[in-house]
Design brief:
The chain is of the alpha+beta class and about 900 residues long. It contains five helices and 54 strands. Among the domains are: about 120 residues; about 150 residues, Immunoglobulin-like (Sandwich); about 100 residues; about 80 residues; about 140 residues, no CATH class.
Length: about 900
């Protein structure tokens, strides 16, 4: 066989092998970078027909492909071992040709089958299988949520048993242009929450999935099966991000469940630049499905018991504080003065036939030397006369001078051999020193520098004491003061506490300066007795969790906008309202006293709705510092007693029984004896009847759910309207107090402390680099503390540090596929220590169906915060010991290698 033929066979086999590997091993590969590997698994509880069909086809084709692979390998082996035999070569060519034909047939069959299934499923309303941005297995446009401009929505994707009277909610990450969102008299108009409040059917489409979008032309055909009689309410006309869509008539049917599709077209514009909201998304629209049941929602919403923060608390904690004590020391001055520096001096030379010079070079303690001339008269030796130790030997110069380094210079013009001299010296005297902490002071006679202490002449202890105090007056750690006795000097640490006990105090002359070391320093100690629940730090975020989605209109936005429905106030008895006289902030409901007058009747700040519209949080507008990521934090009033008040909405009024006739079983219009001051529909003429729970859609003035049911504050499952407050702080009597109705309140205490510990991730699921993951289970992230729900969202958060803008990531999920995955966040607070209040949060990354054999990456960034506004540090991940050098945790390993966007580098 020729070399060319062998190369061709090798390339064909390699190509076929690569195709077969994709077929046979696609569901079990290991990512070479250790990135989280999410693969498919059959989950019987959530089995999807489309995924099942694809899986069966893939398995069948995989076996066929494996046979083709074996045939190709066998043909190649037969050809390469033919040894030139024509029969074997011909047989090998035939097998190879047939195998390649079979491969083409297999690939074509797979492609045709997937194409047909895709079209069939689109026709029957199940969504496509691929193409058009459909990485998610549901609808092509669903990828706009998470990685793109959609933040959250309700009902959720493929939600079942949605009540017929539900509203549809959607929140965008950017402000929405309202000019063409609504129509009036069939012409576009800017939505205004008033007379221009009907959806533009070319921008927002709601239709039964099986019927499809009937409004593909402009104007829509008549009759039109799309749901076009829908009112829009906007959370804020100034900064519109959330839309509340309320159909005029109930969705669905009283006899059978109905699938619906909601579609926002690319005609939905951004307020900032007028471009399509989906211009940067994988598709130019957003769409999702849900199933409407046959029933109406007539169950009012409730605040989940034990799921408010701070928890109800009736008693302020008591504290006993021990003030810090400064460490002290003492110096006692003797009658002898401290030594100052004196140079060495000559006493005598015997015989007196030589001279001494340069004695200032000598700093030793020897007092008597001997110099002896050697036999050749050219050198002399220097000895310690006390022990005859040789100290040095040197040469005479022509003038009879000899230098002994580090001692002195001796001159003797007549220095005959054997000559000797005895020299007596008074050694130099070093100055005494006093060391206090990091500073050493030197005693001098004059010419004082910064750390020199003058020794008076004549010496007086009182004057010496004053000189020490004067010199030490600028010491950073110690204060010097006059003692009780004239010769006594007291020292005190400037900062009280145990640390002062370790301040250094030393001297070179303890006979002149008697020292008593620093001692007695005690740190400030505070012993707190918790009464009821602990008082919470003042950087707390107030959190309320409901058992179902809440209408955003009356609970979201600045405190000034929702004050009649939801507010935080001073709970102290006698707290004064707006414009009443005050002397201090604590006198006012608002904790704000300005010019001796109380401002407003509520704490200033903002309310944020999150977690699938089930969690409301209040953040004060009182700046009190920054967190570890440079973001400003806001504090509630220190040492305060606060109360949160939620008002139930007024119920729909009725004029007579005719007005209630369509509201079975609430067919009885009862008069004002119900305590509300107006007539409402009830289910019985008896005294113990129950009210129709729905609020007036044209005048929502309290807390309602997405079906407009008014708040059930006392959790008796019935709606009583805004009659009295149910107080969560009280212990309900048995039976419950009938006076406590459906407005809701609780109170708690705030301390003067600030919590600074950042949250830590304690667990993730699926774990890093695991395979065979179910296709629809959410990704779970478990934190060690209660989290701020409004930061458990997707995308990024720009933070202005004053000099630059830093991009902090939130919670994100993405794959290697070119089309985006649709995902959204939810959270659940848990009481792990069973003390009646939540103490940690589990965040869930919900997503559309994972694609099979695809790697998915999950990310938690520093934009996520705990309930005290402390940001998550990306190094605090499971099994990850990050350092200052490697501050991030990527795939369970610490690293500093991030992409320019701040993501983990693969």
């Amino acid at each position: 066989m020729s070399k060319k033929s062998k190369v061709i066979i090798f390339l064909i086999s390699l190509f076929a092998l690569s195709l077969m590997v994709n077929f046979v091993f696609a569901e079990g590969f290991e990512d070479p970078f250790g990135v989280e590997n999410v693969n498919s698994a059959v989950n019987l509880e959530t089995f999807d027909l489309r995924e099942g069909i694809i899986r069966v086809i893939n398995i069948g084709l995989s076996f066929l492909a494996l046979i083709v692979l074996i045939l190709i390998i066998y043909a190649g082996f037969l050809w390469m071992t033919s040894g030139g035999e024509e029969d074997k070569v011909r047989q090998a060519k035939s097998i190879l040709k047939n195998a390649l034909i079979g491969l083409v047939i297999i690939l074509a069959s797979w492609g045709i089958t997937i194409f047909l299934l895709d079209k069939i499923m689109n026709v029957i309303g199940g969504g496509g299988l691929g193409g058009g941005g459909n990485n998610n297995g549901d609808l092509p446009g669903f990828g706009a949520i998470g990685a793109c401009t959609v933040e959250s929505f309700y009902p959720t994707l493929n939600q079942k048993d949605v009540p017929r009277n539900t509203s549809i909610l959607i929140t965008f990450k950017e402000q929405v242009e309202l000019d063409n969102l609504c129509i009036k008299d069939n012409a576009p108009c800017p939505c205004n929450n008033g007379d221009c409040n009907k959806i533009n059917p070319q921008v927002i489409k709601i239709f039964e999935t099986t019927l499809g979008d009937a409004c593909k032309t402009n104007p829509c055909p008549d009759p039109n099966t799309n749901i076009s009689e829908v009112k829009i309410a906007v959370d804020s006309l100034d900064e519109p991000k959330t839309l509340i869509l309320t159909p005029t008539n109930f969705l669905g049917s009283p006899t059978q469940n109905t699938d619906y599709t909601v579609l926002f077209t690319n005609d939905l514009k951004k307020k900032l630049d007028g471009k399509s909201m989906f211009v940067t998304c994988g598709s130019d629209y957003f769409s999702w499905n849900f199933e409407v049941s046959t029933k109406l929602d007539l169950t009012p919403p409730q605040v989940v018991s034990g799921r408010v923060f701070p928890s109800p608390d009736n008693q302020k904690d008591t504290s006993q504080t021990t003030n810090a004590i400064a460490a002290t020391a003492q110096i006692l001055l003797s009658n002898s003065s401290p030594h100052t520096f004196t140079e060495a001096s000559l006493e005598s030379i015997d015989p007196n036939t030589g001279t001494i010079s340069n004695l200032d070079n000598y700093h030793g303690s020897i007092t008597k030397f001997q110099i002896t001339v050697t036999q050749d008269s050219s050198k002399a030796q220097l000895f310690n006369d006390g022990n005859n130790q040789l100290l040095g030997i040197a040469d005479f110069d022509a003038a009879g001078q000899i230098i002994f380094p580090n001692y002195f210079t001796f001159t003797a013009p007549n220095h005959e051999a054997g000559s000797a001299w005895v020299i007596k010296i008074t050694p130099e005297q070093l100055a005494d020193t006093l060391t206090v902490g990091p500073i050493t002071y030197v005693f001098v006679t004059s010419g004082a520098l910064e750390n020199n202490i003058i020794v008076p002449a004549p010496y007086l202890r009182e004057v010496q004491r004053d000189n020490i105090i004067t010199t030490m007056s600028g010491h950073s750690d110690v204060i010097a003061e006059i003692g009780v006795q004239p010769h006594q000097l007291n020292l005190k640490a400037r900062i009280a506490g145990v640390a002062g006990n370790s301040i250094t105090l030393e001297t070179t002359n303890p006979l002149v300066l008697g020292l008593t070391q620093f001692s007695g320093g005690v740190d400030r100690q505070e012993n707190t007795t918790v009464n009821g629940k602990p008082d919470r730090p003042m950087n707390s975020v107030i959190q309320i969790n409901f058992n179902e989605a809440i209408n955003p209109l009356t609970v979201s936005g600045p405190a000034s906008g929702v004050k009649n429905n939801l507010r935080v106030v001073n709970a102290n008895a006698g707290a004064k309202g707006k414009d009443e006289n005050c002397a201090a902030d604590s006198d006012c409901l608002s904790y704000k006293c300005l010019n001796s007058k109380c401002e407003e009747d509520y704490l200033a700040g903002k309310f944020i709705l999150s977690n699938g519209y089930r969690t409301v949080e209040f953040v004060s507008n009182n700046k009190c510092g920054v967190n570890g990521c440079g973001e400003e934090i806001y504090c509630l009033p220190a040492n305060s007693n606060l109360r949160v008040e939620l008002r139930a909405a007024d119920l729909s009024e009725c004029a007579d029984n005719v007005a209630c006739s369509a509201l079975s079983p609430y067919n009885n219009c009862k008069d004002s004896l119900n305590g509300l001051g107006y007539s409402i529909c009830q289910d019985s003429p008896d005294a113990d009847s129950h009210n129709y729970p729905v609020a007036d859609a044209n005048n929502i003035n309290g807390i309602v759910d997405v079906a407009l049911n008014s708040l059930d504050g006392n959790r008796d499952t019935f709606a009583d309207g805004p009659k009295n407050f149910y107080n969560e702080n009280g212990i309900p009597p048995n039976p419950p107090d009938p006076a406590q109705k459906d407005s809701y309140q609780w109170s708690f205490f705030i301390s003067d402390k600030i919590a600074i510990d950042p949250p830590v991730i304690t667990g993730i699921s699926p774990i890093n680099a695991i395979g065979d993951v179910p296709l629809i289970e959410p990704v779970k992230v478990e934190f060690n503390s209660l989290m701020m729900g409004s930061t458990l969202r997707s995308g990024t958060l720009p933070v202005n540090t004053g000099t630059t803008t830093v991009i902090h990531h939130l919670i994100n999920l993405w794959s290697a596929a070119p089309s985006p995955l649709g995902y959204w966040l939810s959270a659940d607070n848990q009481d792990t220590n069973l003390d009646g209040e939540p103490d940690k949060t589990i965040a869930y990354i919900n997503h559309s169906i994972f694609s099979q054999s695809m790697t998915f990456n999950a990310q938690v960034g520093s934009g996520v915060k705990d309930i005290y506004q402390n940001c998550f540090k990306p190094s605090a991940g499971p099994l990850c010991a990050a350092t200052d050098v490697n501050p991030s945790c990527c795939f369970s390993s610490s690293t500093a290698d991030l992409t320019p966007e701040g993501n983990c580098a693969e």
